[in-house]
Each structure stands twice: as C-alpha cells, then as structure tokens.
Amino acid sequence: MVTLQLQLLLLQKPSMHSLFSISSPKQPPPSLHRLNAPRASSSSSQNNTSSRRQLIADTAAAATAATAISLIGGVGGGFSAFAAPSEESLSAWERVYLPIDPGVVLLDIAFVPNDPSHGFLLGTRQTILETKDGGNTWVPRSIPSAEEEDFNYRFNSISFKGKEGWIVGKPAILLYTSDAGENWKRVPLNSQLPGDIVYIKATGENSAEMVTDEGAIYVTSNGGYNWRAAVQETVSATLNRTVSSGISGASYYTGTFSTVNRSPEGNYVAVSRRGNFYLTWEPGQPYWQPHNRNIARRIQSMGWRADGGLWLLVRGGGLYLSKGTGITEDFDEVPVQSRGFGILDVGYRSQDEAWAAGGSGILLKTTNSGKTWIRDKAADNIAANLYSVKFINDKQGFVLGNDGILLKYLG
C-alpha cells in the first residue's frame, strides 16, 4: 500500500513550513521503485493475483507522483511552482532608531543647506534631535531658552536658509539661529497671535514666513524683531464675510486648518479641519480663497506636486491629482493599494518619482508622476502611522511617523 500512501501525501496541501523544510530524497519515490523492479516469476502466487488493472493503476499513480515532484522541483531539485513568493524588501528605505520615548510623534525635519550631514528633527514632548552624519544617528538637543518655562512644547516646523534657521511650536514659541543651529535664541511673540503657529519657512537673509492654523500669515525681514501681516484677516473672518460665496460646508468651519502646505513659489494650500473644503493663497492676495471639493469623501490633506499641480488625499485612502498645474478644483482619482487606510502625505523626490505614506505603515511609490502607484509591502510590518514624507534633495529623504518612527531613504 505504499503507492496509496504516496497518493494521500500528495493530496494534502503542504504548509509553508513543510515546503521549506523538505530535504531532497536520496532515492526515488517508492512507486517509482516498483515500476523499475524486475518482474517476478510466474510461479509466485502473489504475482498470480496481480491483475493488469492493478499495473495500470500503479502506472497512473507513478505518473501522478512524477508530475507532483516535477512541480516541486524534481528529485533533488529546487523549489519553483509551490514556493511562496518572497515579500518585497524595503530596499529604498531603512529604519533609524532614535533615543526617544516610543510615544513621540515626529513632525518635521530640516538640514543645513551648506552641510547636508547636519540636520534637526522635531516632534511632540519637546523633542529636538540633532544629526551630524546625514541622519544615520541622532542625539537629543537641549535648548535652554526653550526650557525656561514649565511647558511641554510640541515643535511643529523647522526651516533653514543658509546658516539661518527657525523653529516654531505650540504653545507659541519661536526659536532662531544664525550659526547653523550651534546656538538658538528665543524670539518674543505677541500674546494676541491668532491661532497656533503650525508652519515656518526661511525665505532669505533675516527673512521668514510664518503661518498659524487660523490662516494668519506673517513675514519678517529683520530676524524676527518685527512681523508684518500678509493677509488682512483670518479665514473665519473671510468666510463670515463671504457666507454667500457658495462654498459648501463653510458654515461648519471650525476656524482652524488641519494641514497647510507651501509651494516653492510661495503659494499655499490648506485643508479645513472638517475636510469639507480647502483654501488657497498666493503672494499679494489680501485673503484666503475658499474652494469647494468636487469629491464625495472628506479631504485628508493636500499639497503641491513637483510639476506645480496639486495632489489631494481623502479619508479612507483615496488619492487624486489635479488636471494640469496651478490652483484648480478639477481632480482625477488615481487607483492606489491603500487597503482602506488613510494616506496622510506625499513627497516628491523628482518630477517622476514620489512616495506616499499613511496609516498602519502604508508606503507607496510612483515613478511616472503619480499615474500608477506600487505598495511597498515590507512597510506593512511597521506598526505606526506615517505622517510626513520629506525629501531634502534627490538623494536624501525621510519618512516621519508616530511612536518615534523614522525611515531614511537609501536610493
């Protein structure tokens, strides 16, 4: 009954463990032995009971066994058809482990332009880390002027222009350096500042642009001693004044942005806290311009593509790209393998290559300007939400997440 046992064995679906622990047999299967054995003499009583039908059955069983063995790779051969496909490796990224508490959410990163090995990483719980080897290792940085008060600051944004750098956070705090971060000083802020500072951009010598979550934009040209308002009113005031402008959902505006992004040309796009519409601002405009979303799902985040167009993320994992460049309300959906998790940010390495990151370790890549996206499956094992994709240049990039997750681009 050896042949019957082999047939039963072949009918069983092997586990992944059994496939990769089977050793190559030194001898052919028993059924093959039987086929090659010399025929017994006619005087044997046992062979007299063997029928021609049995021989045909044995031959069929042997053929089945040979077929199965060839699928597995042959006697003593390698595995092919039954071998499980290997998971894609995280070839373009590696995780950098940081000396911080697991609950810290990383929020922004920047490097000194003339020294790409020297950079700073910001987060919640008053987290400031510094690197001097391009982001391979990080050490906590203490800034005495940010520790004078009993506050647990959330550092939201950092930016450098030359050796000048700026850091902003919540509660309202502004730090400035003129020596590439060797020393930081605190710049006083007006207590009547509308909203929390969520973004800062170094724009030139002693110059910067600062944005609050209520839509206030301020610019300085003297190292932060004086700030001039670039818009005449907050977004709430604009919406109240233009309540009949036809913006759907404006009456439910909570008064703050959920996200804000700036283009290299100085244009801004921001998403309302509820995600029911978005707003834009261009240099020289006195007010933010609200826009209807022509998409059923609420907006998660928006930003600028490398070609000057817009990308738009909706809740539930949808990704849209604007038609053409510039500010528009016309978008096309792009299929992505988000598995239902929200995508939170998109970062462009070049005009063709971009990466998107989101909830539960979602990491997606495009190499054709966003027309198609491929999910990097190796990132599925990262038990964290990835909030931000930052490319310092075409060779240096990072993905930031909660629980102190930092990924470094390898190329």
Automatic annotation (TrEMBL):
Residues 88-409 form the Photosynthesis system II assembly factor Ycf48/Hcf136-like domain. One of its GO terms (biological process) is photosynthesis. Residues 21-53 are annotated as: Disordered. One of its GO terms (cellular component) is photosystem II. Transmembrane segments: none annotated. Keywords: Photosynthesis, Photosystem II. It comes from the Eukaryota. Residues 41-53 have a biased composition (Low complexity). Pfam families: PSII_BNR (PF14870). Signal peptide: none annotated. NCBIfam families: PRK13684.1. This is Photosynthesis system II assembly factor Ycf48/Hcf136-like domain-containing protein. It comes from Cinchona calisaya. The lineage of its organism: Eukaryota, Viridiplantae, Streptophyta, Embryophyta, Tracheophyta.
